[in-house]
Amino acid sequence: MQNDHQLSRRKFIKNSTGAALALSIPYIIPANAFGANDRVRVAVLGVNGRGQNHISGYSKLSNVEVATLCDPDNVILQKRAQEFTEKTGKKVKTEIDLRKVFEDKSIDVVSIATPNHWHALAAIWACQAGKDVYVEKPGTHNLHEGRKLIEAAHKYKRVVQHGVQLRSSEALKEAVKHMRDGLIGNVYMARGLVYKWRPDVGDKGSSKIPEGLNYDLWTGPAEMKPFSENYVHYNWHWYWNYGNGDIGNQGIHETDMCMWGLGVDTFPEKITSSGGKFLWNDAKETPELLTSSFVYPKEKKIIEFEVRPWMTNEEGGVGIGNIFYGSEGYLVVKGYDYYETFLGKDKKPGPTRKAGGDHYKNFIDAVVARDPKMCNGPVETAHLSSGLAHLGNIAYRTGRALTFDPKTEKFVGDNDANKYLTRNYRAPYSLPATV
């Protein structure tokens, strides 16, 4: 039951907003907008895959109420709502159209687990509607969206958390501190590894839109194509119209870890990529195998990244993770919560630790405190770690080495490559020119 403070806050917001997408409330919500007894009301957008983890994660927090579930597939949506009631004994509101969620003044937070092509636009619209945002990785579908998302978060004073949960791991925070403190010397190279089992997906061709699916909403800002089971519900990852391949899927955790560990907070200047489809004659567009290099000549650092899709050896015991190389040793990150170190020429075992963290709780704590700086995965990581993957994909798609200007966020003298930095948006699902 809502207390008087919460009711008055909701009434204040409702009377202050005006048009749903032209709000000024972020400037006037006081720092203590949430009282000690207030529950943060969350709407989860996209509940087929990763969204299930969002529902579970928020449900464990005592000061959070999962109030609304939203998905353009009403069959999936009603199934998740029923499961929620069975698990919690509580009813949950359902919406097919995410815009209805943004118009709902009772919602404080939206948690976005849609396909990639919706991430940035949904997050920006949410910021404009006065909502705080948790957005799954990659925070963007193209590089231009990242800068717009940062602008929106800052303009509307929203708390935005990027779903790179490695940042909340106590073990990996410790690992980064070791590197900052010089445990492995001068850290000059990071290697990101994504070795995942990705089978032949075939080619299902076009077919009738399934009952219950609002395909227009599912497609959103992307180019409208005839419906195909190739896209809905998971394999959209392997089509440029919706996804970003595995470097932009699982790989964002590792691109983020590479940048965090190396201590770089800008984009590289030199990018090369090679790879392709060597195993399956299926309908995937993105490469099965991708090897990319990102060079920071001024910082004298390099990131190497590799995606492998099938049977392979591990490197240093790592199939999904990172290896950092320094002048005095190397540090291995395995998965989301474990690191180990090897020091000197003899590779003497050094500090090691396994410990996780709660990325959802970290986000909610920042929301309650009205302090974006508390976020372990701040909005800037959505731009940088996602952007690194985008740069690697662009180098692959152009088939040549590229030079990038981190200040202008453009490729130098390469109009063909620059075309990949954004996309044509399908009205009315258009990225605002000015947030």
UniProtKB/TrEMBL annotation:
<dbReference type="InterPro" id="IPR050463">
    <property type="entry name" value="Gfo/Idh/MocA_oxidrdct_glycsds"/>
</dbReference>
<feature type="domain" description="Gfo/Idh/MocA-like oxidoreductase N-terminal">
    <location>
        <begin position="40"/>
        <end position="163"/>
    </location>
</feature>
<dbReference type="InterPro" id="IPR000683">
    <property type="entry name" value="Gfo/Idh/MocA-like_OxRdtase_N"/>
</dbReference>
<feature type="domain" description="Gfo/Idh/MocA-like oxidoreductase bacterial type C-terminal">
    <location>
        <begin position="205"/>
        <end position="269"/>
    </location>
</feature>
<feature type="domain" description="Gfo/Idh/MocA-like oxidoreductase bacterial type C-terminal">
    <location>
        <begin position="360"/>
        <end position="430"/>
    </location>
</feature>
<dbReference type="InterPro" id="IPR036291">
    <property type="entry name" value="NAD(P)-bd_dom_sf"/>
</dbReference>
<keyword id="KW-1133">Transmembrane helix</keyword>
<dbReference type="Pfam" id="PF01408">
    <property type="entry name" value="GFO_IDH_MocA"/>
</dbReference>
<protein>
    <submittedName>
        <fullName>Gfo/Idh/MocA family oxidoreductase</fullName>
    </submittedName>
</protein>
<keyword id="KW-0472">Membrane</keyword>
<keyword id="KW-0812">Transmembrane</keyword>
<dbReference type="InterPro" id="IPR006311">
    <property type="entry name" value="TAT_signal"/>
</dbReference>
<feature type="transmembrane region" description="Helical">
    <location>
        <begin position="12"/>
        <end position="29"/>
    </location>
</feature>
<dbReference type="Pfam" id="PF19051">
    <property type="entry name" value="GFO_IDH_MocA_C2"/>
</dbReference>
<dbReference type="GO" id="GO:0000166">
    <property type="term" value="F:nucleotide binding"/>
</dbReference>
<dbReference type="InterPro" id="IPR043906">
    <property type="entry name" value="Gfo/Idh/MocA_OxRdtase_bact_C"/>
</dbReference>
